[in-house]
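ugh ok fine here u go
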Amino acid sequence: MTKPDHRPHEPAEPKTFGVNALSIGAAAIGLGGALLAVFLRSKANPAEHAAPDLALDKPRPGATDRAPDAFRPDPTAVPTKAERESLRPATGPAPSFAADRGSTLG
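structure:
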């Protein structure tokens, strides 16, 4: 009886092609995502504009500074019925995730 050429106790060739392909693919996806994020962040939003009154070199109002007259509320003004209703506290049962006893969901 002859012994086979194959020795069962020797380690086989490692199969690294699949692992390498997966790691290269993951790295490519990660790099692509990073480049996309940099590209999207660098685009200026046309709805945004500079606010010169908020610049760091502008003086900041202090406790003694007052708003211009046009922006001060009139302390003697009587609120309208709609304004009074909008300031009324909310009443009724508080919302919850649990259904009340006897009610159905849906």
